[in-house]
Amino acid sequence: MKIMGCALYLSLLATAAHAAAGETDPYLWLENIQGKQALSWVGEQNARTRADLSRQADYPALRRDLLSILDSNDRIPGIEKIGVLYYNFWRDKDHPRGLWRRTTLDEYRKAAPQWETVLDLDQLAKKEQENWVWQGADCLRPSQERCLLRLSRGGGDAAVVREFDPAAKAFVKDGFQLPEAKSELSWQDRDTLYVMSDFGPGSLTDSGYPRIVKTWRRGQPLAQAQTVFEGQRADVSVHAARIETQGRRYDVITRAPTFFSTEARLLVDGEWRKLDKPDHVGIDFFGDWLLLTPKLDWKIGDKTWRGGSLLAIDSRAYLAGARDFSPLFEPSDTVSLANQTATRDSLLLTTLDNVSSRLREWKVVDGHWQSRPVATPAFGSLTVSAVDPDHDNRYFYSFTDFLTPPTLALAEAGSDQRQVLKQQPGFFDASPYRVQQWFATSRDGTRVPYFLISRKDLKLDRTNPTLLYGYGGFEVSLTPRYNGALGKAWLERGGVYTLANIRGGGEYGPAWHEAARKQRRQNAYDDFAAIAEDLAKRGVADARHLGIKGGSNGGLLMGVMLTQRPELFNAVVCQVPLLDMRRFNQLLAGASWMDEYGNPDLPEDWAYIRRYSPYHNLKPDTRYPATLFMTSTLDDRVHPGHARKIHAAMQAMGADVRYFERTEGGHGAAANHQQEADIAAMEYAFLLQQLR
User: Fold this and answer.
1) pTM exceeding 0.85
2) Which of these is catalytic: 152, 552, 592, 613?
């Protein structure tokens, strides 16, 4: 360890140990996102990191390979039925911002379909001199004659909303428009919207989301829209929607006091009526039926429904006080509910059985629910979505696993037959590799699953360059999925890939998430460390050859591993992370996540948060693994100050750290394929540099 001067040592201790008062933070100035001094600092770090990583021998080929995959015409264009046509949003080298385009289903089946361009985002951005990034379209059901397009400047969550006429392929003159904000809109009918937006001072929650619901009529100034509901400043958000299902219509307002709790109000006989349910119970509708999903165990009379169940009951009967539910799904220790989607007459449930997908179909016959299992592969991930829930029973069926490129098929409820629409070719030769599912034992004895993708002839000599990826939060499940870029950039260059299914995720349902929420958060970190130790024990990789990667909440996971167990790893890629857990609730959308982490302003919560907050657990006398922090200036969800500040603190310690901050793209991704390939190439070049 390098010997430091006493003054520097004490300064670093103060940096690492600063706690309650934000003003004692020596790097607080880096939270000024667009501040001149902060951006100058960012520019210096970016230049240093690019100079280092772009010089790596692997970087040029990596960037070229990754960009060719991202721009490849062999990718399956996902489609959505709008009206009688099938729409797709597409980016490639000639259209870096993207095309919104459409075709017929018969044309789509062809190897090279003919597409009709509906909106060219590159042309629009050039014409309007805006850095538009597509965020999607919400079209009026069932006619689909009008759509609300969301366009972001640079890729943040905040977006401009503009009404669009798909038939005319043009924006509607004097149509609905909203300025840039984190807005939500929902169609009531062709001339009326529910609108949730920034209406001025006091109209947002502490999390930065709308707290007021208004009804907005065509031609009416937004300022005259009628308020129908107001949430509280301390809420996360409010939302309103009109739900159309099997000829039934439900108007619903949901108020989210916290991230994982909701109140619901239904419009009944012209009045908004609060639904009698615990806040942890989510709701949906299917025809006459109310669908309820408790997150926690729910005791009704002498029956307790396990958290993660799906319960159905006639909506009118429920409003009248009945509680005789039809259970459509009840979880087990290894099987959880992943998703549900409705066709015209059937409800499709996707479940996870030890993190592999299964599919079951339900329908109502003579007032009673009947089900059947749908044949699926034994291993892998399924995604199903209704083609047109207003008119037919077809659905899109997509299957993939780590080594199997996606297949998109057309299926119909009531049948196991599927018509393959598209099958993506492989972007790397998968034949030398295999997938295994192993289990590690965490500190408290919990068995934690993880997937290992490696060559079939893997030598268990502990020297294999291995990348371990994790998330572990917000009930998000990590499932087997094909990643051509990973195969080309990592597996083909001798790497082993590991996907961790640690607690905090949703792989085993709400209980798996609850086991690592708030004061139980350390369980997720113990699980991840246990997998790292298991990889060494089994002979896959020792610490010298093991790297880790994660983003957002997974970036927090990386920060905790960096500060709690630095001896287990030799490289860390920490993307768009939370790291200062003392101030996370004061930065951008951070207040919305207190239901996940706790409230650091409460002494009893800060007591356990303080034990793992990465920014507060840096120690000057510790040897840290080489670390690459990646974030975005325009990330308006997780503040870039998290990554900026810890990098500055570690840099002052003399740690082996690198930093790169995108100037475009929001929390989820870069603004275009060129940027995405560039960032990924730097990450892989860094990992190869450290782990070979």
Assistant:
1) yes
2) 552
